[in-house]
């Protein structure tokens, strides 16, 4: 079975607290993975601190949504390391990606979409 990860951009939680963000993404597999097996596929850390990963979907599917919660924006730029290991889902696929978390009190354009 093959597994790939697709991530969105960092998003602030609704409201005025700009210190916390979340990251949504999808686990895409070539076969159905049960929820109890998908829980161990994604992990995330920020400055050595393990971040919570939740899976809002509860049904079996080839595409599973996930969310990395409580990513902290600090006075200095930091990194989140998003890792995946498909072993619990029956795959040898794995990898990691570094995600830059911009510091507080800065404005950065991180994504642009053109819609006609």
Provide tags for this entry.
four-stranded antiparallel β-sheet, 1 helix, mainly beta
Write the layout of secondary structure elements.
Elements: E1 3-12, E2 20-33, H1 35-38, E3 42-46, E4 49-50, E5 53-54, E6 61-72, E7 78-85, E8 94-101
Antiparallel strand pairs: 1-2, 2-6, 3-4, 3-7, 5-6, 7-8
Explained architecture:
- This protein has 116 residues and is mainly beta.
- It has a single domain (3-101), classed as Sandwich (Immunoglobulin-like).
- It has one helix spanning 35-38, and strands at residues 3-12, 20-33, 42-46, 49-50, 53-54, 61-72, 78-85, 94-101.
- The chain has a four-stranded antiparallel beta sheet with strand order 1-2-6-5. The chain has a four-stranded antiparallel beta sheet with strand order 4-3-7-8, with no helix packed on it.
- The longest helix has 4 residues, at 35-38.
- The N and C termini lie far apart (37 Å).
- The model has no long low-confidence stretch (mean pLDDT 85).
CATH class: Mainly Beta
Give the % helix.
under 10%
Strand content: over 45%
Q: How is the largest sheet built, in terms of strand order?
A: 1-2-6-5
N-end to C-end Cα span? 37 Å
Strand runs, count? 8
Rounded mean pLDDT is 85
| SS-derived structural category | mainly beta
Task: Output the helix-strand order.
Answer: EEHEEEEEE
**Which regions have little confidence, pLDDT < 50, spanning 5+ residues?**
none
Give the radius of gyration. 15 Å
Number of helices: 1
Main β-sheet description: 4 strands, antiparallel
- How many domain units? 1
CATH architect. name: Sandwich
Assign the CATH topology: Immunoglobulin-like
